[in-house]
Amino acid sequence: MSADLYSALSAASTGLRAQTVRIRLAAENVANANTTSELPGGDPYTRRVPVFREYVDRETGANGVQVSRTVDDLSDFPVKYDPTHPAADENGYVKMPNVKSLIEMADIREAQRTYEANLNIIESSRAMINRALDLLRRG
Who's near 59: CB < 8 A, 6+ residues apart? Predict the structure, then answer.
């Protein structure tokens, strides 16, 4: 039984780390939602997203998750007409980042809830381990 609890702790801790990266990337995206190129016609900030991968922890045998890499979002850059902007092309259009703040905020909210769920698993597992130790001490 204790091996199962340690496996739960291990799996939940990998979830915490993965969701931390996800929140950090979404926050970076929001922070750069208006970052354009410094060169005329150049590309602006490109939204980045995590790629998750499942793996098995060799010590505990628990399945876990990790961010294997981050990739750029390949969606089109919206354009805005502003001929006075330093990054405007020859027609006066500026490429804007492909970051949608509403999507990023929803992603942060989902990652936050997943983080909290993993934290609850850790707290519950620790409570069960402590309760089992208390019972063993009395017995």
Answer: 10
pTM of the model: 0.86
Task: Tokens 């098995």: give the residue.
Answer: 56
> Which string of b and e fits 66-98 if b means at least 16 CB within 10 Å?
ebeeeeeeeeebeeeeeeeeebbbeeebbbbbb
pLDDT tens digits along 89-104: 999 999 999 999 999 9
Question: 61 near 7, Cβ under 8 Å?
Answer: yes
Q: How many CB atoms lie within 10 A of CB 10?
A: 19
Listed as ranges, residues in the chain with pLDDT below 50 are: none
Query: What's the CA gap between 35 and 47, in Å, rounded?
Result: 11
Distance CA 54, CA 38 (A): 39
User: Quick one: which H or E segment has residue 55?
Assistant: strand 48-56
